[in-house]
Amino acid sequence: MENNHVRINQLSRKARIIWGICLAAVAALFFAGAICVPFFFESQTLRYQLGTARSMLLTGHIMGTAAGLLLLVQMILVCRSRFLDRVFAINRLLLFHRINAIIILVLAVAHMLLILNTLGSQILSFEFSQWPEYTGLILLVMVAGIVFSGLSRGLIGIKFQFWISLHRVFTPVAILLLCIHLYCVSNTFRYDSAYILIICFFAACLLAYFILRLKKLSVFRPAFRVGKIFEAGKNIYSLELAPEKDKAVVYAPGQFAFLKIRSSAISPEEHPFTISSSPTRQPLLQFTIKDSGDWTNRVKEIKAGDKACIHGPFGIFGHINFESRDEIIMIAGGIGITPILSILRYLHDIKSGRKITLLWSNRTQKEVVYADELNNIEKSMTGLSIKYAFTREEGQNKNRARLNRDGLEMLLSGCSRGSIILLCGPPAMMTQVRKDLILIGFSGRSIIEERFSL
Ligand SMILES: Cc1cc2nc3c(=O)[nH]c(=O)nc-3n(C[C@H](O)[C@H](O)[C@H](O)COP(=O)(O)OP(=O)(O)OC[C@H]3O[C@@H](n4cnc5c(N)ncnc54)[C@H](O)[C@@H]3O)c2cc1C
Questions:
Q1: How far is the CA of 22 from the centre of ligand 1 (A)?
Q2: Do 170 and 227 share a domain, yes or no?
Q3: Residue 161 domain-assigned?
């Protein structure tokens, strides 16, 4: 087996599916139990309602309980659990986190409207006694602010780091407001068992939040020193990190980690980058970073000897979980080569005899990194064929084409339609390539993608 060469703690596809179903079933049971709370522990406001008013109020309570519970789920989704990453992959969990935020907002608005519709005249007053209701309203405004600013961040030009910092400050405040609102607004949680439930809920939320914050503290992360930094291509820099305590990080080729540099040259933000080295070349870690924004354009100022720490590895992109006899097609666009570089280096080091085709599209030749190393790998691996495409350059033997349907059909003419396809590049290119691959006869299920956005 190809993955016997290094210690790699990833789950097989089958194990991921089984764990996925089990976890989804547990979550569904928990959710079903929680939304029964308004039935089992009836609020006094419900007792005096009849007919439609009663149904609306009860539905409002259920919606509110569901929104509160999903807020707890949010904490679990972002807590960067390695186990959950192995089962679902962190980028899917974060996608679900964003969808879940919208669901919470819809449920919370429905909760408010249904309750106002039934009890509006009783609770819509500016008396001090109504403060628990107003905590709910503040919470709703906060959730709406986070959702809308998150959705329109790109459009209104809010910087990611500023937005994420605000989001992090809001989180414990939101949990606190939710618990106060839940406990004080209705009589439901005056029942002993419901009171215990709300306390457990509050404790679980805070625990999840503090575990997440604790895990992010650098003291709990493997410490590194920058060994080498060099320009590997046009505006692309490679950083080599050596562990301070000679303790190797266990990772699979194709995985990524959150990197933090402690240097006066660059802010101590965390950013996700693929580990472009191979686990066969431990204990050094390499990151290959393209200058594409506020943080990455300062990477060139990092100096050898600067401190660094990483959180990871994460991600399930790669070839590891497929049979070693499967043919592999790798398609990269620009800096999307980094996970593929790690996989190729690994397959080279373990002397894999697999049939592999790499298609790598760049704007110009200047963006090609590690050209000599790739040439040498191609020469020593009989099954490997590397084909380059340049979209803004003409030259000898260079396919001046996008990887469009015709280009792909020609370049992949000798490849089995049952191949595994590893795809990583700019989002628009990936969407188009996926469509074209399916049109020329490859199965969508065998296309494995890595997106450089969380
Ligand atoms: C799984 C994964 C692997 C990646 N691998 C590589 C790689 O090998 N090489 C490479 O050059 N780039 C890689 N990237 C992209 C890299 O993370 C971004 O280019 C970088 O974070 C941009 O930061 P910036 O401040 O320079 O740019 P900005 O312009 O500030 O950010 C551009 C966008 O990057 C995202 N981003 C920024 N900071 C973060 C953060 N801390 N956490 C999550 N997302 C953030 C946001 O969506 C933001 O809108 C990878 C991204 C992901 C998700």
A1: 32
A2: no
A3: yes
Domain hosting 284: range is 219-314
> What SS3 state is found at 256?
strand
Ligand 1 atom having least distance to the Cα of 270: 41
Q: What is the pLDDT of residues 106-162, one digit of tens each?
A: 999 999 888 888 776 666 666 676 777 788 889 899 999 989 988 888 888 888 888
Q: Do both 33 and 141 map to the same domain?
A: yes
Residues 196 and 234 both lie in one domain? no
State the pairing for strand pair 420-424/328-333.
parallel
> pLDDT tens across 318-366, in order?
888 777 678 999 999 999 999 999 999 999 998 888 899 999 999 888 8
Q: Is any ligand 1 atom within 6 A of the Cβ of residue 277?
A: no
| Same domain, residue pair 247 and 134 | no
Q: Within 10 A of 43 (CB to CB), how many other CB atoms are there? A: 20
Please indicate, yes or no, whether the overall pTM of this predicted structure exceeds 0.85: yes
For the CA atoms of 335, 338, 344, 345, what is the dihedral angle to 10 degrees? 130
> For residue 323, is it within any domain?
no
Same-domain pairing of 230 and 211: no
The span from the CA of 101 to the CA of 427, in Å, is 23
Question: Within this chain, do residues 342 and 298 fall inside the same structural domain, yes or no?
Answer: no
Determine whether the shortest distance from the Cβ of 424 to ligand 1 is under 6 A: no
Q: What are the structure tokens assigned to 49, written together?
A: 């309602």
Establish whether residue 426 lines the binding site of ligand 1, counting it when its CB lies within 6 angstroms of any ligand atom.
Answer: no
Contact (Cβ atoms closer than 8 angstroms) between residue 93 and residue 100 = no
| Residue 421 CA, ligand 1 centroid: distance in Å | 23
137 Cβ below 6 A of ligand 1: no
Is there an atom of ligand 1 within 6 Å of 257 CB?
A: no
Q: Looking at the CA of residue 297, tell me the nearest atom of ligand 1.
A: 26
**Nearest CA, atom 45, ligand 1:** 271
Query: Are the C-beta atoms of residues 305 and 225 closer than 8 Å to each other?
Result: yes
Do 165 and 231 share a structural domain? no
Query: Is 353 inside a domain boundary?
Result: yes
Domain identity same for 337 and 428? yes
Calculate how far, in angstroms, residue 189's C-alpha sits from the geometric centre of ligand 1. Answer: 44
